[in-house]
Amino acid sequence: MAKYFLKTYGWEMESVAHSLTDDQVEQIQTLIEENEYDSLSDCRWDLEEQGIIEDFYGGDLIFHMSAAMDNGTLNFVIEDEQGNTVLEFDSKQTTDIYTYFGEGVDPDTEFPHIGYVAIPEETENIENIIVLFDENKGGIAQYVFESDEVPVIEDFAYMTGSVDTPDGDWDFMSRVFFKKKELEVDDHLDNRGKASTLEIYRKSGENIY
């Protein structure tokens, strides 16, 4: 039995969401106006400094997640213990998850959907939601597994999760499988920041970008 390393490359998404009171939203609007910012993203670093949000990555979190984006750029590299690449493929080449498991297994039942909601209308007692999407490009994660045969593309499949917003869904890889067994992240790879999106969604419909 040989050890192999699955490494994923492409775009990574880290998303954080908080609930906001109407008073906090007003403070943010005032901050944007007083500083003549062009967008909500311009005041991102002021939110903690001004005490509007105590800790962007902690405190009153609705969710905080990080995963590979399922946006057509996801690539997989399989290496052996000597660091030699034995297989490379992209997300478009993987088998559909339902075909992969076949008629004997319903993946939606065996592996429940992983998703997050940033839509005020679908949450209880929350009037406003501020959500951050940081996009990074490069290495994402490493998985370790063993096999008595050199892996082939058909051995792998993945499931997709989503962050749902009023403007649409952000899809990400929620689970990855080798020979129908879910793999766990062993390590994180290096990447660099490429884009950042900050939005406030309100039940009133007066969203802020």
Largest sheet report = 7 strands, antiparallel
Mean pLDDT: 97
| Model regions low in confidence, pLDDT < 50 over at least 5 residues | none
Give helix and strand order, one letter per element, not per position. Answer: EHHEEEHHEEEEEEE
Give the domain tally. 1
Radius of gyration: 20 Å
Distance between the termini: 53 Å
Helix/strand-derived category reads: mainly beta
In DSSP terms (H or I, runs of 4 or more residues), the helix count works out at 4
Strand content: over 45%
- What's the count of strands? 11
Q: What global shape is seen?
A: elongated
Helix proportion range: 10-25%
Structure description:
It is a single chain. Helices cover 12% and strands 48% of the residues. It is built from four helices and eleven strands. The protein has helices at residues 22-34, 46-49, 97-101, 107-110; strands spanning 2-20, 61-68, 75-80, 85-90, 115-117, 128-147, 156-165, 168-178, 181-182, 185-188, 191-202. Strands 1, 2, 3, 4, 6, 10 and 11 form a seven-stranded antiparallel β-sheet that branches. The mean pLDDT is 97.
Task: Please summarize what this structure is.
The protein is mainly beta and 209 residues long. 12% of the residues lie in helices and 48% in strands.
Topology readout:
Layout: E1 2-20, H1 22-34, H2 46-49, E2 61-68, E3 75-80, E4 85-90, H3 97-101, H4 107-110, E5 115-117, E6 128-147, E7 156-165, E8 168-178, E9 181-182, E10 185-188, E11 191-202
Parallel strand pairs: 5-7
Antiparallel strand pairs: 1-2, 1-3, 1-6, 3-4, 6-10, 6-11, 7-8, 8-9
